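Colleagues,

For the teaching module next term, I've prepared a clean inverse folding example: a structure given as tokens, and then the sequence designed for it. I'd like students to try predicting residues themselves before seeing the answer, so please don't circulate the second half yet.
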């Protein structure tokens, strides 16, 4: 009897630990995702000035040289490709933006348009 009580308590301690770890991981990934969005917006609005040519409501930009990003459902890989290598009039950003910045701005556009 005493032994099973002990086992139950040990089990619930384990569950508590698991819940704590899950909570911690969720918190980390939220913070991580947010900082990626922040970096993406920073690149979009300032460093690469995508908004000069593109409309994207989330970023408050209304450029009309390139396609309206709100009206497209791009895949991450397509955005990364376009930003890295350029396409048509759009210049390539390889060597100007770091890969981290290219990925962040693609993530930002992807998250802002695929809802
Ligand atoms: C000088 C103007 C200009 C700037 C700055 C610019 N773009 Fe573009 N972008 C264009 C034009 C024009 C096209 C259409 C090219 C074509 O299809 O020939 C385009 C196309 C795209 C596409 C579509 C790619 C595809 O596969 O059809 C994406 C996504 C995109 N731009 C994202 C961005 C992002 C993100 C930035 C900032 C890093 C950016 N653009 C900066 C002009 C620009």
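(Answer key — instructors only)
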């Amino acid at each position: 009897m005493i032994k099973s009580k002990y086992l139950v308590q040990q089990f619930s301690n384990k569950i508590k630990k698991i819940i704590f770890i899950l909570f911690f991981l969720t918190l980390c990934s939220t913070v991580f995702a947010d900082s990626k969005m922040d970096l993406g917006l920073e690149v979009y609005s300032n460093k690469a000035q995508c908004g000069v040519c593109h409309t994207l409501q989330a970023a408050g930009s209304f450029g009309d040289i390139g396609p309206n990003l709100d009206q497209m459902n791009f895949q991450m890989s397509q955005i990364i490709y376009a930003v890295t290598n350029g396409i048509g009039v759009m210049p390539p950003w390889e060597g100007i933006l770091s890969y981290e910045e290219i990925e962040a701005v693609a993530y930002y556009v992807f998250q802002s348009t695929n809802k």
